[in-house]
Structures are given as C-alpha cells and as structure tokens.
Amino acid sequence: MSFKKAVARINNIDWSLVGSVASKVEADLACEFLRRLACFFKEEGIRPIKPFVADIAELLGDAEKVEVSYYCSSEVVEFLGENSYVKNIIQYYLHLAKYAEAQQDAYRHLSVYEPLIQILERKGMFILRVNALDIVNEAHIPLNRWYENFVEMNPLWNLNME
Predict the structure, then answer these.
(1) Which of 12, 36, 60, 105 has fewest C-beta within 10 Å?
(2) What's the CA dihedral at 43, 46, 51, 54 to 10 degrees?
(3) Backbone angles phi, psi at 142, to 5 degrees
(4) Residue 24: which region, alpha, beta or left (left: phi > 0; alpha: psi -120 to 50)?
(5) How is the chain split among helix, strand and coil, in percent rounded to 5?
(6) How far apart are CA 28 and CA 33, in angstroms?
(7) Maximum Cα interatomic distance, the chain, rounded to a whole number of Å
(8) Cβ atoms 159, 29 nearer than 8 A
(9) Is 154 exposed, middle or buried (0-12, 13-18, 19+ CB in 10 A)?
C-alpha cells in the first residue's frame, strides 16, 4: 500500500460514526493487533515495548515524524484531537506507510496496524492505554505480560484481514 493510499484510507473512514458499533469482531481484531505486534518484535529481534508507543517505522530506524494534520482532512484532525490514543496509531500507520516507500522491506509490517484500522472502518472504537486495550462497549484487554500472552497466539484468519 502506498502512502497516498494509506492517507486516502484514513480520510475515507466515516469519523462521525466511529464508536457507534461494538461487537466480538472488534475485540478479536484488537487481539489480532497485539498478536501481530508481538510477532513483529520477535521477528525483528527487538525488545518489546508497550503497544501504545510502538511506532514501527521509528523502531526500524526512521526518525522522521508524520504530522496527520498535514495529510488528513479536517474531520480526521478534529476527531483525533479528542482521541489521542487513536491519533498515535494513525500517526504510526501513516509513518510506516511513508517509510515503506523508501524501505520496501517495511511494507510487510503495515499489516500490524491493519486490525486497528479495520476497527475504525467498521465504526468501532479502541482506547489503547498504558495497561489496557479497550474496545469501547465490548472488551477490556489487560496489557500486563501482553507480549508473552500474544506472541504464540494463533492468527485469526477467519477475520479476512489480509
């Protein structure tokens, strides 16, 4: 996925409806994000850090930041201004998409953020905190020992996330 397509994808989310839907699917997507993130750390040989600060492009060595307000619509910027947890993930996703244009090997890691982007596209909402990942009105996933709990988890292929 090119950087332009990633930006278009974020801009095409109906932000006025984000948070209006909650189901087990969103909870499964959240678990799949944690599984993929854990696998990223394992595959890259990087010491795991808390998911809410896991900027993969930065972890791979890119120091350049991506400012969401420069690329996204005012609707996106307004929503993210009130939801810093979501804003961080959107920034990380766009940062990685931009980095991947120069470092082709990084493209494969975009799938790590895919489940969280799908939650937003499905009109769900997540809150990624220091000690928990919450799916609003659906699930609370504690993050103590998150890496150990998710690194060996089987993929949730039935969600058709690839």
Answers:
(1) 105
(2) -100
(3) -65, 145
(4) alpha
(5) 60, 5, 35
(6) 9
(7) 40
(8) yes
(9) exposed
Facing residues of 34 across strands? none
What pLDDT, in 10s, does the model give residues 7-28?
999 999 999 999 999 899 999 9
CA distance 128 to 87: 10
Tokens standing for 28? 């499964």
Residues 14, 90 contacting (CB under 8 angstroms): no
Tokens of 78: 């307004």
Helix orientation angle between 110-121 and 24-44, rounded to the nearest 10 degrees: 170
Asked whether the beta carbons of 35 and 153 are under 8 A apart, the reply is yes
Q: Which residue has the tokens 């988890």?
A: 153
- Specify the pairing of strand 139-142 against strand 126-128: unpaired
The 10s digit of each residue's pLDDT in 103-156 is: 989 999 999 999 999 999 999 999 988 899 999 989 999 999 999 999 999 887
* DSSP secondary structure letter of residue 59: H
